UniProtKB/TrEMBL annotation:
<feature type="domain" description="Pectinesterase catalytic">
    <location>
        <begin position="46"/>
        <end position="313"/>
    </location>
</feature>
<keyword id="KW-0732">Signal</keyword>
<keyword id="KW-0325">Glycoprotein</keyword>
<feature type="signal peptide">
    <location>
        <begin position="1"/>
        <end position="22"/>
    </location>
</feature>
<protein>
    <recommendedName>
        <fullName>pectinesterase</fullName>
        <ecNumber>3.1.1.11</ecNumber>
    </recommendedName>
</protein>
<keyword id="KW-0378">Hydrolase</keyword>
<dbReference type="InterPro" id="IPR012334">
    <property type="entry name" value="Pectin_lyas_fold"/>
</dbReference>
<keyword id="KW-0063">Aspartyl esterase</keyword>
<comment type="pathway">
    <text>Glycan metabolism; pectin degradation; 2-dehydro-3-deoxy-D-gluconate from pectin: step 1/5.</text>
</comment>
<dbReference type="InterPro" id="IPR011050">
    <property type="entry name" value="Pectin_lyase_fold/virulence"/>
</dbReference>
<dbReference type="Pfam" id="PF01095">
    <property type="entry name" value="Pectinesterase"/>
</dbReference>
<comment type="similarity">
    <text>Belongs to the pectinesterase family.</text>
</comment>
<comment type="function">
    <text>Acts in the modification of cell walls via demethylesterification of cell wall pectin.</text>
</comment>
<dbReference type="InterPro" id="IPR000070">
    <property type="entry name" value="Pectinesterase_cat"/>
</dbReference>
<dbReference type="GO" id="GO:0030599">
    <property type="term" value="F:pectinesterase activity"/>
</dbReference>
Amino acid sequence: MRLLVYAILLVHTSFLNKKVTSLDDDTDFFENQTVNNTNSIIVKTIVVDQFGIGNFKTVQQAVDSIPSNNKEWIKIRIRNGIYNEMVTILMDKQKIYMEGENPLKTIIQFNQAGDSINDGTFKLFADYFLGVNITFKNTYNNASSRINEMKIAPAALIMGDKAAFFQCIFISLQDTLSDGLGRHYFEKCYIEGAVDFIWGAGQSIYHKCVIHVSGQLKELAGDITAQGRNTEDNTSGFVFQKCTIVGSGKAYLGRAYRRYSRVLFSRTYMSNAVVPQGWDAWKYKGQEDHISYTEVNCIGKGANQEGRVKWGNKLSRKQIKFLNNRDTFINQDGWMANIPKVL
Ligand SMILES: *[C@@H]1O[C@H](CO)[C@@H](O)[C@H](O)[C@H]1NC(C)=O
Ligand SMILES: *[C@@H]1O[C@H](CO)[C@@H](O)[C@H](O)[C@H]1NC(C)=O
Ligand SMILES: *[C@@H]1O[C@H](CO)[C@@H](O)[C@H](O)[C@H]1NC(C)=O
Ligand SMILES: *[C@@H]1O[C@H](CO)[C@@H](O)[C@H](O)[C@H]1NC(C)=O
Ligand SMILES: *[C@@H]1O[C@H](CO)[C@@H](O)[C@H](O)[C@H]1NC(C)=O
């Protein structure tokens, strides 16, 4: 049911596509990408099939088969199925392209919680990663009996630089997507949770993603983001372009996990899952000057500015343009040209 909603929303986000002002970075990634770059060639494909009709039965076995210090793109094609395993990609396994058959049916899930690093179902430490059509899930907090003992349970922990995800689904309740460190791009992904469910010091753009605020906390408001920029010259931040925020729970758009927390929502539809105040300074009350939380061209009940905290929306037009553009914010050195074309 929930995932049907996801499919519908992906279609509906097209209503956010209109380019209205020059603040928009309007194109989907592959729309204008003329990929003709030898660095994006896939040299090998490994098939994972849990019924044994591939090269390996588990995703981790496929990862382990890739040589250390790998230099060229290797695709791991995962056939539909529920893979009950943790998958870790260490730093020496660069250039892995992991692709499911169908994001609703290729599922990597695990049930372990309590630690924000070790308990992630999927853990990425290598640079250069491409993920397509996969669900990453941490099932720990799902049991309703566990609400009072909700734990940190990441579905994915992304610590490598230069990672991109297309049509992936991230599901948990607390710390779902640990966008920890490095430059990342998410397009048409679905992210579900209740507490700090997109958090960390990542430097990331979320383009046309669906953000689902879980209703599992009932009337308690959680936080969609907990961005961890800790100094003024730190380049991290989360930028949401043309996203859709829905769900039966309530949440702040963000809480200041670190002193210079930076989050931009641009042309995003916000349902009333977003609380009127919008943002929470958390430990940094009285130091809101350092926090860069901005909304531009957003629509929907949750985007109403009447009840909003007064210290948001401080970024200049120039700063917004810088953040809201792939080439200036995350693709300064052109690494995205090396992303293999997703068919
Ligand atoms: C994308 O391609 C179209 C058609 O070639 C062009 O008009 C437009 O300027 C391009 N946009 C970007 C961001 O490069
Ligand atoms: C891509 O590059 C190759 C080699 O440089 C060239 O032969 C080919 O025509 C190019 N293809 C496109 C679509 O530009
Ligand atoms: C991703 O999943 C969609 C929906 O099942 C499918 O149409 C598409 O071909 C898949 N993409 C790849 C690269 O397998
Ligand atoms: C949670 O558990 C219920 C009942 O077992 C199941 O139907 C549902 O799909 C699960 N949700 C998630 C997010 O795993
Ligand atoms: C930003 O802060 C994070 C978290 O403290 C740190 O690991 C990272 O190196 C910093 N990055 C830059 C570019 O300053």
